[in-house]
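Why run this: before we spend reagent on co-expression, it is cheaper to look at a predicted model of the complex and decide which construct boundaries make sense. The entries below are exactly what would go into the expression plan.
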Amino acid sequence: MQKAKQSLIIIHEGCIRNLFRFFTAPVKSVFRSRPQTKKGCRYRRTTYNGSVVRGFLSVLAFCLCASNAHAGVAVSPKPYVLGSVGGFPITNGMVYTWVISLAIILIVRALVQKPRLIPTKGQAVAETVIEVIYNLLTPIVGKRVAKQAFPILIGFFVYILMQNWSGLLPGVGTIGTFKEGHFTYFFRPSNADLNATLALAIVSMATWAWLVLKNEGFVGAIKHIFGNKADRSELSFGIYTLLFFVFLSVGFIECISILFRLVSLSFRLYGNVFGGENLINNIMALAPWTKYLLPVPFYFLEILIGVVQALVFTLLVAVYIGSICNHGEEETTEGTLKV
Amino acid sequence: MIGCLLEISGNNSGSAVARLAEGFGVQTELLIAQIVNFCLVTYLLYRFAVKPTLKTVEERQKKIEEGLRFAEEMKAKQASAERERLEVLKKAQADAQALLASTKAEGERYLAEQKKAAEEKVSQLTEQARYAMEGERSAIMKEAKTEIATLTVETTERLLSGILTDEMRAKLNEQAAALLATKDEHGTQA
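The model came back. Tokens follow.
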């Protein structure tokens, strides 16, 4: 058994070189202005074809081997500490967060480049995403606040979406080493780490607080939460006074719900991604043959969940902001894109 | 809430929340690192992708609006130019019609004048010719009468030279001359 595990590690290490080529080749191609063309040759021959094929086969072999090693073992609810730098723990979740963060910046930069009036295909994709999210969020947060909230909200959407989808890439949860008989993988999906989702929730609530205080002020926010929303002209004095106490109680409940948004936002996202990881892991371990084709539908499910969760998180933050900052007069107006 | 966060981050170990945090691997350093990482990515994303894209979209919208406004203006200008063209054309047609009518009238008037002048000239010439003919005729007639009278007188003289006396002859000549003179007057009057 020990020998088999040792051989697996060798396979893993042997594959890493090709794996690296596989992932870096498309990135290189983005920065290469034109593929190399041989003189007299009718077809363009890209230089990374060979490494892509080798890399793909390596990834395939690697994933199968790694799946064998990892399948059936429940995914740890917390990230593994791979090492530490100056007392700062480097976890597999943190490493993958950095990798994907870098990838997000590179991919988006490669897509957008220098924006032109007549857009390139990549720019058109980026513009479509931005426009869809902007038009979706503007009626929720209000046209006035949309300009202030949009940068962070689009950040939430893109970041969570890319982190969710990147958790499905080959090698995530499968590349690693055995330490003391336990498989320790290098890459863990960022949102399967509560640190990441809690961080997102903290940032979202800080943004919410900042926007509410900026647009409504402290008194305005207190009035909105505890104030009597009844119309004085339609009610008798007694009922109106009574409603003060009702709305005050509702305000306290609202405060508790606001405080628990941190928990709900972070655990919802964490639970979905972590659950997805466990689901795929266990599907692979059902029987020796189930790791080949059976997980494919679940991968599609996870792709869908990735989008839905990114959208849910972003929309909820927008709703929290809009519930206090949007006064209704702008709800029906569709915003126009402006910096 | 801050207390809860501190507990989650492990500062207050031993409680249920701290145990939960430990179970999920929540650590203050990692939490801060994730926050910094997300803020950095969001900032870079906004600074280098979203903002330029939004600016380009806004610029494009402005260009499209300008283009549409320009097209509208051009359409209005074209309509106005078309209207002006039609007006000019209409005016030119009216002018041409008026000119044609006046030219026609002038032509007719000129024609009438010319015709009248020609008729007058013709009648004048005819009159002159008639006068000339009359004069010539009367001259010829006069000459013919004189000739005839002379011939008659000579013939009569020759015939009567043997019969008549000189006295009778002179009397006859006078009578014949008087008769001729009378006839000549009647002929002229006729």
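Chain B has one domain: 2-189. The two ends of chain B are 155 Å apart (CA to CA). Bring this page to Monday's planning discussion.
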